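Batch job 17 of 40 flagged for manual review because the log was empty.
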Amino acid sequence: MAKSGTPFENEVRKKIEDEIKKGRHGIDPKFVRLHQKKPYPSMRRDDIITDVSVELWRLKAADYWFLWIIECKDLGGPVPVDDVEEFHSKMQQINAHKGTIASRHGFQKGCVQFAESAKIGLFRLDASGSTLVLNENFATPTVAEALETHHPNGMPGTFAGITHGAGTFAFEEFLDVDLSEIGLMLDGK
């Protein structure tokens, strides 16, 4: 049984779980196992404990065939680039197929560029119930601008995400893009 995580980890897991249960992303929910604080064997001697992990299993399989790990960062400010680089290293050490970093306060400059080159998804999820107001004198920011800022008025909503070069302000669209590669693998394409 997975241990409980921080409130932010619980929130991220719940959002992903709710979307997967809807079955809209080309993935049958009965073949998905979600975990929090699950250790995975790494190339080094110590296991790596993930914040949230999503495993896809085949019927009667002895082990998962696809591993997606999500790192949850509820820091006092934007996530630094070296945290994204360290996460990339963790992905490689446990042979994760997909990686995403969730942040409460955005990402420092350079994170989006590195994450795109390393095929890591990034999303920013403001506190539940928060209301973000944009000054109408300013243009709506791009998704990358919304990710690389921690100012709450920098986003036209509570979510911004970018993965596979596609940016969105809707969590459902983010998962559609992020999980589309799994659906393609299931279809054998």
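Reviewer: the log was empty due to a logging misconfiguration, but the result itself is present. Residues 7-187 form a domain with the Trna Endonuclease; Chain: A, domain 1 fold (CATH 3.40.1350.10). Unflagging and moving on to job 18.
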